[in-house]
Input
Amino acid sequence: MSSLAIGLLGVLALLVVLFLRVPIAVALALTGMLGYAAIDGWKTALDVMGAVPFELASVRGNAYALSVVPLFILMGAVASRARMSRELYDAANAIFSGFRGALTNATIGACAAFGSICGSSIATAATFSKVAIPEMRRHGYDAGLSAGAVAAAGTLAILIPPSVLLAIYSIAAEQSLPKLFAASLIPGIVLAALYVVIVVVIARLRPDWTPYVAPMPLRERLRAAASMWKLGILFFLAVVGIYLGWFSPTEAASVAAFAAIVIGFATRALTLPDLLDAFLETVYSTAMLFFIVIGAFIFARFIVLTRVPNEIVRLVGELGMTPIAIVVAVIALYFLLGTFLEEVSTILITVPVVFPLMQSIGYDGIWFGVFVTVMCTIGLISPPVGLTVFVIQAQNPDIPATRIYLGTLPFLAADFVLVALLIAFPALALWLPAALKM
Output
């Protein structure tokens, strides 16, 4: 059997194993190892299994680049336990008060702001599920819309920098993380604005879903805006510091994580047990992610060995497919995978295969990183898996999952609008890195 045939069988076997609910890290590593064994024998397969973890952890490998992941996770965990999410929601609520849908738009604004220091869609959705949904329901907001808004707004955390998913993509595709952070900023803001527009339209069409909330005095609004200084400091250190060239991504993450701890203790919002909980959450989340990364690197090596990406590029060339037809096919692929895979696995499984294809038709690696991330936001709120939906439903068991999925549908439309804008206007992602001369 040829290497190409083994590679295609390996991809098929991986999908079957994933459908059988085998843990993703195990499925990736096992499929890659068996594929290597079929091509080069068991000795090579076992050598690769032993070598990949050490290469990832070595100075010559990706150790320094990977270290940004636990640091950003730690910053988000500390910020959450220091009750910055509650302060952000209260501030956004004050700023948006006086408009129909104010509480929903406050949730979107707060999720976008918190996502800029958290980097995790699951953590953001879980945090604001506790903070925002009870408040919206107390004011008579529709439960499905409230939960759907939190699920959708939580996905902004993987698009607005700093993003753990973009850090993973930068390693998988060997792209500049500072450029990716710059490229994703404007699309992230645009998506948040589209979500706000969706809420405004719903408020006009179904005013009974979004009862009117009286406006707060101007003094209260200004005081609320000023209370966001903690977020401002962390965002400046974690993101603006990178843009200004003061820090590398890893340095920025470490400085911002340390600043979050200092601010938490200085304002007496963080206790020692809270900090220990944040450290434990960081360890658990990082271990889970890195097991997936190790498995994905083993699988990626197997796929490259079989030359599947090269053959796909050649086949597409022979078929004479237009670039837009290829992009539509890639959108369909990511939408399908997003229905049963979480975002990190989607990135790590597809990038070795799809990225060379997109490069062959002239798409930039930085643009593709933003594009893939937006597609992952769609997967996070799409049935039947929709991880953010499950997180919210677990915390609000009286709201059926089907009702939450219905609540996310208008926001899914906004996601696809952003995908269309990125395809029609690539500068939406590429202008800022060029303007910053990165």
